[in-house]
Fold these 4 entries.
Entry 1:
Amino acid sequence: MRALRLHKPYEFHIHDEPIPQPQPGWAQIQIKSVGVCASDVHWYKDGRIGNTVMSDPIILGHEASGVITALGEGVDSLKVGDRVAIEPAKPCMRCEFCLSGHPNVCPGAPFFGTPPTDGCFCDYIVWPAELAIKIPDSVSFDAAAMIEPLAVGDYAVELSQIVPGDTVAIFGAGAIGLSTLQAAKLAGASKIIISDPIQARREMALKIGATEAIEPSEVRNAVNATTSARGIDIAFECSGSEEAVCECCEIARILGKVMILGIPDGDTYPFAASASRRKQLSAIFVRRSNLNTERCIEYVAEGKMDVKPYASHHFTLEQTKEAMELAITRGDGLIRAIIAVNE
């Protein structure tokens, strides 16, 4: 099979590797669509995220969908031919965090495309059967691949404990920001201001429910006008911008919340100290999603959330480097580049 490995920053090579075979309890999945996430871009550019550094060639890609092609012994929840969305993390389900309902923070949980665990930029993978979740025929493979970022946004809103009537500001209108927007709207937010420097993304945000979609430099004025200078109830940072974290602190109201989803280029987040302290803000960091995938599949199937617009650009596996370069520049109105591994 084809396996695309990152050997060092900016350098991919396609390898011919054996098709992996499923062990008991696992499934073999032919990969269909894979989204290019900001974390993939960090690996591609820097060979690291924070203090995690790649040392060996690795297969990236974790926003994935596919078809079941073989099953290991003892699997009766799936059958060959099933169309699936794939949970990218494999929590142990034994530690104190998993047992308390927080498998998303399971220490050391293998995660696709994070050393040493290979991801989905390849023809086939094997993965525990319970982490391959069936999707209805009405959900496309592209949409199924976008369930992962949708679940992250949905979990962020759940974690924020938003209540109907809350005002929300979101920095970044990529797939994570748009997912947060849709989840906040579904949760009953009264006003949702989203900012992004890319016009096409702002236009998309308006189509799927934003009250205002503006340039980042306009956020403070917009929040003051919307809230009569009281400040926003919950600010979501979804862009990975250091400046946006500080801006969240400035626009949040007294006793407001700052939800941090974006991955910064470096390994630190700067906060506006005076604003954060004087307003006694709560800053909450969002780690992936947490048991939200099946619910998000239902949302998409029922038309409550729409991820079709996320898949704005398509590339073959051999064109992944081009996809990464476009993701770096966020050019041409990019929301998510999709690697169509197998048509």
Entry 2:
Amino acid sequence: MGGSKANLVKLSGEHPKEECGIVGIYNVEEAANHAYLGAYALQHRGQESAGIVSSDGEHLYRYAGMGKVADVFTPTKLRQLQGRHAIAHNRYSTTGASFLRNAQPIRFESRLGTMALAHNGNLTNANTIRHNLQEQGSLFQTTIDTEVISHLVARSRADNFTDALIEAVKQIRGAYSLAVLTGDTLYALRDPNGFRPLVMGKKDNGYIFASETCALDIIDAEYVRDIEPGELVVVSPHGITSLFPFEKSSHNLCIFEYVYFARPDSYVFGKSVYNTRLRMGEILAEESPAAADLVMPVPDSSSVAALGYSRKSGIPYHMGLIRSHYIGRTFIEPDQKIRDFGAKIKYNAIRSVVEGKRVVVIDDSIMRGTTTRKIVKMLRVAGAKEIHIRIASAPTKHPCYYGIDIPNRSELIAATHTLDEIVKYLRVDSLAYLSLEGMLRGEKETERRGKSGTRGYCTACFDGNYPVSLEENEADYSNQKTLFSEYAVEEHT
């Protein structure tokens, strides 16, 4: 018998890809361990690489690697990350290729000292800034937009780091939540529009910053408040200071955080993700009822919305699909091709639940429609009598330029096909989306934690109304070579 040739198959998911997760720890014993736990809780926000930079007040120690948090860090590596201060980052690339040199936090040295930076978001003018800096002789070590911030800080003529950082961020546009660490100071910053979330907590005599509150929960930190859009919080040996260096701007919080990205147990933008997702599911049932025997989610991000749909409609809730939680980035497919292989390694239908039944399938979004079509086929094979798809968000018709990997408009099925055409392509009995008004109503009707105020949301991926101008198309710098080796602690086996 001849040798077998393995085929490596990557899944291109139906859902928008996660963004990034950031954590900041200040004045907490074993800061690197706490940063590790916070990043572990935020693993859903990025699985390509993970990194931690710690500080003992003078020196910064860095380690980063490709893969998930638990795979990158060992007890030995964490022990080398000394000090009571640390920042951590989980990465999913929206700009820059998936290579180790692009792992964050990035670390660099300038006349103002050593600095490390972790970024969640996407800068809409990064390529223009990068080109101008290169024309002036700057050398870049990575292909990520985040690095332009470090160059702008280093080139500032300000006589202190805080002013240099403010000068730098006033030159960038787009979405950014930042955690910045110097020897004895931690900075936490949100862009003036507030696209990406960032919360502050307290643990003993120290402070914690994170993308979501679930990172506070895992380390027993007390939630204090959200960092406000356009706010810079500075924590140093002199205490904690809040600055607002930007001009007033409209708030454009990412509504997709509630739909898909954030963990249900988190509070994001001051609202319970679980309660908001539940309310959106209820409103979906009001707007688009269906005569059916059961309601089932496409797990896991749609489970809460499906529960809301079931509760409002009175149709029993069941788990009609099981999702595998042990999927890596790459798979070996047998030479004898298995139909719908990519979908089958992730989902499997429960025949005893769906056979002979009229089912309402709740999903959070549809991008290309390919995975949804395969799930529908699974349910048909398992004996489902009728299949009614209900989507707990509005039709996604536009790409995102603020830190979410949503495909180009030409790849989005809702942008290129009518509702009837999508129904035909998916081979379902009916399809309906939650209206954009219903999404915003779901958020509005969820109780807010902490103080209330005027809130606005970015809905560009649904309606094409981009709140921050786009200077350029995304450029591909993935072939650019790094000129210097990365700073890293020594790796021991």
Entry 3:
Amino acid sequence: MQEHVSFREAIELVQQTGWYLTERARYHEAAALLEYAYQRSLHEQGEKHLDTARDASTLATLYSNQGKYAEAEPLYVRSLAIREQQLGTIHPNIASSLNNLAMLYDTQGKYAEAEPLLARALIIYEKILGRNHHRTQTFRANYSSLLKDMGQQAEAEQLETEP
């Protein structure tokens, strides 16, 4: 039996393998795969394709996990911009991109940059999934934690006690 695998499917497999290795903290092995997948997406799919956004975000996560924040930030920003252009302003992938960038800023103590991103992500998830969905609750917890880091204890407690 002869199977045909498209080039895009092969790149997706490379990307998924790189993500698998990232999740297991095998960063050196993951880096080559994720950098390759991202470059191929840029070349084959173009700068505005959702695959490019996905591959940019995955590579940014690797860099963030390695503490390479300066390398991660522009990739997260690019991923968010592509997704906003392709998906509009209210979509789960937009919320995920906002959360990723906000968590990068939070890790660096850039709370003022992170706060509006998490607030917007939470609004998106509440509109799409509802207030009680587990993903919405995760975003709510992230936002509450950030507010506490910013010294806004009362706001964090109000967010945690909202029905």
Entry 4:
Amino acid sequence: MKSLSTLRLALVGGVFALAGGASAMAAELNIYTTRESGLIQPLLDAFTASSGVKVNTVFMKDGLAERVASEGESSPADILMTVDVGNLADLAEKGLTQPVVSDVLKAAVPENLRDPANNWFALSMRARVLYAAKDLDLAAFNYEDLSDPKWKGKVCIRSGQHPYNTALFADYIAHNGAEATEAWLAAVKGNLARKAGGGDRDVAKDILGGICQIGIANSYYVGLMRSGKGGEEQVAWGDAIKVVLPTFKDGGTQVNVSGAAVAKHAPNKGEAVKLLEYLVSDDAQKLYAKANFEYPVKAGAPIDPIIASFGALKVDPVPMTEIVKHRKQASELAEKVGFDN
């Protein structure tokens, strides 16, 4: 007997199959996404209102690539949407995407934030920033400075194996090489005020609690905390810190991205490309900024006031694909120095 989960997947597949079969009569799109529906639904609703194209979504926390691969040529998925550049690159490497020729996407998405073969495109960014105690006289900071002995016992950070940090460490490798990165990681570990772990918001919480003075965390969490979306308690965490946009000494601020790709066997490719182009429009980029306090990828698009208060973001120019290449080595180096021990 089939399990309930198997039956549910079969039912969803059947609904999408019907949607795909009806696409010749009524424009529709099918999205497989690891982004929670609450974050992207406002954008999809706006797209439907402006284009008349209905958008069906299936949210899956894990297993997106495996699902699409198992469906093969019969997959109803038109767009694959996910968070973290490693996940986007993984979809392309597994042959689950197809290149998109679009002057609109090329003009809106900087070259370092998209696949060189145009298999995927970043749609929003979150920066890896410095949370600092408000009383610190600190207006500028380099990632390299995290290893300075003056911060001994004063640094908080989540696990070195978390994708947010392996991406940062991989970018460090791209700038400084593996040997220097290993030494830096060992020195940062020596500066920790507590064991690496918890979440990014815990960095702000622990700064408020006096456990540490500085820490590395994602920019959008500050918006979630200060706006009250994370709950009343987290407002105090967000208000207890100031945010500095750190840079590499020879580069900019490290960012990670959310993005999307057109599925290899997309039944509705034309509509899929139209949606991707809409998602980099000024209106959609503004909605991205409002929904989850993310940075838009399109230059000049509006930024939420909380995030804008950090100052001008200078995105590190290292290509996302270069960072992906170093992530395995970054994880191995973090393990080698016992970063989480």
